Amino acid sequence: MTIDRPVPPGLQRYWNSPVAQFAQMECNDFEPWEKERHSIFSELLFGLIYDKWNGNKYGPLGDYGNWRSGQLIGKCDGEGVSIYEGGTYLGHNIAALAVDREGRVIDFDFNHNAVFDSTVEHAESRLVRRLFALNQIYDPWYALEREAPALRAEILHAERPRQRRSVFATAASDRSVPLRTGSYPMIQNDAVPQAPQEYSTLLKDVTIYTSLESCAQCSGIMCLASVKDVVYLQWDQGQFLIGNMMRKATAGQGAGFVSPRPIRGDEFGFQYFNDLNRLSEEFSRNVKYEPFYEGVDRITGQDIRITSGSVTSFLCTDEARNVFSRAHADLMNRSHAEFPDAKPADVPNAFTNEQVLIQARDYLSWVKMLNNRGAAHRV
Ligand SMILES: [Zn+2]
């Protein structure tokens, strides 16, 4: 028995239709230059994961069998216990990358579940929260402080908007920029970014690349943040197409927040999308007969034997790592963009594909110097 209530506007169109009509997306059509652009960002994201790889989901000691023989360092003295590279497990090998309308990388983040002993520290939700926080960091103090000395404001004014622009090119330049106070006559109105407001549209031109299809939490956060597109590079069947359904329901409302447009990796020819899906399925089938892990539970001290085919276990295996490694190599082996001068026609300061490629390699080099699975920020 169900309890009657009015059908929400976003669902009216689908109320009496098959679930497939609600859950399936129409295919996106991309120009060849757009496919290249998406591929470069996707290879960058996979390169980040490859560089920060840690497959020790159940700890660095124990037996991961053939699944991780390529990550085996050796045996512990005397005990015959295998030890694997990677050290302490911080979270799953799942990451997300945010790119603005001009094609500038804003930031990346990883899944941090293990760091926080939590099931909700997912890459996309962490990244979105960080993007909002970054926006606040880059607000200059003199836009907030009525009594700030004018001279100091003058010194800083040339620098801070430039910094901010580099982080939030799209959102910052979209805003109207009234001075908050009339105290700084020598500062041009258009040179001073205003304090945080209009945050509801801040990410409206941001694309998030995520290595694994988003869950309900992350789809919800990206919807509330008005993220434009979400590109996912492996599907997660456990998430029951929630991103698709949210897109359709919110777009159908004609008002309020709209969920990001989902884009699958294979829609722009990213071969690793299919590779990961296939290998993950094979893993789920075979792990029943060949345990992913046998060893001691770090918390209970009991012997454990893991035979469940979870995608996060798959994302620790040699086969998964090989996929990320190949994508990383693809990025490094691109000598030039195939469409070097291509860029979105309606975005004046957009990076060309060649600039996107140069940026991607620079960004990867920078991340390789970081010891963390995230950029160093104060938030
Ligand atoms: Zn999630």
TrEMBL record:
Gene3D superfamilies named in the record: Cytidine Deaminase, domain 2 (3.40.140.10)
GO MF term (any one): catalytic activity
Protein name per Swiss-Prot or TrEMBL: Uncharacterized protein
